[in-house]
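== Polypeptide entry ==
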Amino acid sequence: MKILFNCNNSAFQAPGGGEILLLKTREFLMKKGVNIKLFDQWNDKLNNYDILHNFGLSNNCYDLINTAYNKKVPIFITPVYSWPSLRFALRSGATLKNKLKLSGYSILHGTPILNKLTRTNKILKMANIILADSEAEKNVLMKTYKLNDKKFRITPYGVDKRFFNSNEKEFVRKYGMKDFLLYTGRIEPRKNVLTLIKIVNKLNLPLVIIGNKNYQGGDYYYNLCKKIARKNVHFIDRIDHESSLLASAYAAAKAVVLPSWLENPGLTVLEGGLAGANVLVTSRGSAKEYFQDYASYVNPFNNRDIEKKILMVYQKEKDKKLAKHIKKNFIWEVVTSKIERYYKD
């Protein structure tokens, strides 16, 4: 069985959770003996592969997917869906230009008559199997694009089990910090980092931000975050995902916080929760299906709610209940076994 992986052709210029999702899916499927190749447009021929598995719904993936469809190569889609919404576009955009762009996208994709014309709709219609990360993602895609239930297989995102045995010593030794709030990831408007900083400034709680501005148009938002941050906010440049220092940071944190405008469900909170940290995550998206009653959820529109829940997770004693739940259900070995079965089917 030979599988071809593809994604947005500029994705790895600013890697984040979506890119980790692709690479880890590949890594653990290959450990199971599945033959997986990352698409090389100069050399690969679709007819030489049993399945094309595309990550994301980017327009620049359309031509390859359409070619696979015409050649009758089965198509799998991991949507990494953005849940477009005009309400959230107007609030989450950092600049007027950004708000207008997001609003236009939301209107186009959120209107059934209009979204029939989009490449997203065409990609989803051509897919043989859609690997939705949750029932929530499945339902919003079915409703928005009028898709058949039979196309879907619920396939949650995964996490490395190595985070379960994380030790705080390396991070504490290097940075001298422990029991802080932790945000790790790209510093971008969708993650609602600016609001997070304003609230921890008000509460005077320690916040560590591990990440950088490495995404399109990131300078403005990153500089704004740096400008308003007080001495209780500590910026650390991006740490490689495979580094033991990242695992140690999760172990040293009191809570991992992600009050984003959307998460599906947020790989960093899965990793932090597995490392034993308390978890605060947005209620918009699929996080509740993953964390159930083990996490605190916030309405990203409501700063008072975010403030209240931040205090709760910061004051709460850490325990291993969430870590054990994640280890049982969401480590990559478990998740990729499902994908392997769907491939064979």
Remarks:
- DSSP finds 16 helices and twelve strands in the chain.
